[in-house]
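DATA SHEET
Item: assembly model
Revision: 1
Owner: S.N.
Input lines:
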Amino acid sequence: MLAMRDHDQLEQFGTALNPARTAEFMEGLSSDEAWGVLSHVEPGRAAEIFLYFDHDRQIEILSGQNAEEIAELVAELPADDRVDLLQELDADRASELLALLPTNERREVQRLNSYAEGTAGSIMTTEVARLRQHFSVREAVDELSRQSEHLETIYYLYIVDVDDRLLGVVSGRQLISALGKPNIRLSDLMATDMLSASVDEDRESVAQKVERFDLLAIPVVDSNRKLVGIITHDDVIDVVREELEEDAQMLAGVTPLREDYLRIGLASLSWKRGMWLTILFVTAMFTAFALKNYQGSLEKYQWIVLLIPLIVSTGGNSGNQAATLVITALASGELSHRDWHKVLMREGVMGLTLGGLLSIIGAIIGFFFAPTWMAILVVPLTILLIVMLGCIAGSMLPLLFSRLGLDPALMANPFIAGIMDIMGIVIYMNVAAAILG
Amino acid sequence: MLAMRDHDQLEQFGTALNPARTAEFMEGLSSDEAWGVLSHVEPGRAAEIFLYFDHDRQIEILSGQNAEEIAELVAELPADDRVDLLQELDADRASELLALLPTNERREVQRLNSYAEGTAGSIMTTEVARLRQHFSVREAVDELSRQSEHLETIYYLYIVDVDDRLLGVVSGRQLISALGKPNIRLSDLMATDMLSASVDEDRESVAQKVERFDLLAIPVVDSNRKLVGIITHDDVIDVVREELEEDAQMLAGVTPLREDYLRIGLASLSWKRGMWLTILFVTAMFTAFALKNYQGSLEKYQWIVLLIPLIVSTGGNSGNQAATLVITALASGELSHRDWHKVLMREGVMGLTLGGLLSIIGAIIGFFFAPTWMAILVVPLTILLIVMLGCIAGSMLPLLFSRLGLDPALMANPFIAGIMDIMGIVIYMNVAAAILG
């Protein structure tokens, strides 16, 4: 079809299937060919299909094709996606496209651009259904069919006053149920006690509200309670996924990538890993200095040396388990730093149980390595103590950082790793000294 | 109000605010008192408020109060929540309540109960808007207002044939836009090319579809394409969160809790941590046997011993970083095991860069500990090799497990930890032997 430049058939291809499926069929095409198809489809539909292309292809098309035709497509994208994409183009191309956008869309981009990353403002879209409270159900429906092509969602309809201040909300479902009585006013239907987000609120806190109350969307208001936008459920899924991925990465000692693994620049990737690897390396260096203090005993009891890596890694593993459980529980809101005494109790019990379990295996190992019956005791006792310390330090440090308003996932890991490495050595050497004399 | 048993005021309290807010106001009450309030509110509204109570309170109320009154409330809960809650009550109480439910609701519970955990069937609700294709827009609206109180969502309206087989979908938005032409038939509006999930499909794959295509809900069909239920966006957010939490927990060597940290039994928590701690302990034991092989050199070069924990933990940290990045990228669908050669290239470069960086610091440490200029070389060379191995093994093992159809988060961690611990020792000792002779 492309080779024949068959406009009608290409247009039909673009409208027959749902946009997601159409995009899938086009996966085999080059970016130029894909644009060749899209340019024959009307811009609204083309934008829908474009949204399902993968990110690299989106950027290639936006960067490479005729600016005027591209601007038509960009004008049809949802406001939040439009801003995100323009931010990733090179600055010249972005301002070229921006200049070609209709005034309203251009203003919207500039407005959304002005909110700091990580805030509600930065993830909202400004395309939201606004109605007035004196509208009847019939008037509301008429107004909605007029507005609907510019709206991302009409599942909640927000009622505003003359100054755009948020007064209430009517759900799409309520409106459909009320169609039998078309003269009822929206002021009689609307709920006035509703949740909203403020533009500068942290996006994670907004996501938690939407998640906790199973909302489809949440209105975003500025400091004067003026309705400025809406955050929809799909943006919230993205936030939940990103925040949890970031937590997992921080737990492994990586500054969150915030980009796809295969797409992030190697310099940036080196920095995000190298920084923490260096911090962890420097804290682990203290183990060498700690061991140096005990060099006398090490020369005397050679067998002790053989078990050092085992002891150190067991302490690290138990601390890591406790820290991860507490950090995931904090992230999902199951736990707050106020629960620290309950956590302390649980981890005390866990430390005794898990430490006790590993001590038994430790005693068997001790039997193979230690020269006397007395010396065997060193291994299980050290393991019991180090596992208990791991459970307690691993669980308490994240709670402490959360209490101090710091991100527990980011701060806890190097501290816990450092403490466990050094304390592993210190406990081991002191237990050995106490028992072996 | 409770003390006065003031029915009117209690009823008013239950309806004045939105259900979420009402539930918040009731947080200070005991479960008995909370039920005292709810029992004065009409069951549909009471069920909405009840859904916002925390989980412990829900179970307490369902377990403790008059069975007949409770059954009325349970009948009003969404089908998926109802099944989940009944499963957590003790068996006698659950069957007592089940017997008191209206026939339809009872059948639904039995049906949902029959789907295996982790499948689409187990998280769907059966309350879904069904319409026939010969309906006009006007008839559809009438039918919807009739059905609407039993429906969890009316954002998508599914069109079925006489045998309940799924034919197409009309969005609530389309229906509102079409209200101007009330005689159009649904068959002219509906899209027939739509996504659906099958009842026995893995819930993670369903969540990915909904997420990828920004759906509000997805219909669930059985093997005959019969419409059996719907999975809504809020269930999908829950799945995304749970799956990512499980990945984070597996990465830390914990079998996923699948319950709140503060609520899970200590026996179960010990098992889920103890099992992996033991596996990791046993793999780490091999470090002791490996070291034993090199006992001769260790006695000769005492200073080597002091750096063992540093070398081992640096290898572990670099492996952990690479593994976590690959596993989070696999989970979000950015990466597939087919990309292994791109990952290998990247991690080769990262290994050289990060290993090179740490080698410089390693050389400085070597300067403090090693007795000769030649001996200083041992430390940076070991670190370069171990960090390279960490990057490559840490990134390739999860891809290999994913290729074999195993969960990369679950399988990769003990293998990587074991390999890095032992290889750390082996590389260190061999580098030392080669350089020091």
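QC remark: The CA atoms of residues 284 and 418 of chain B lie 6 Å apart.
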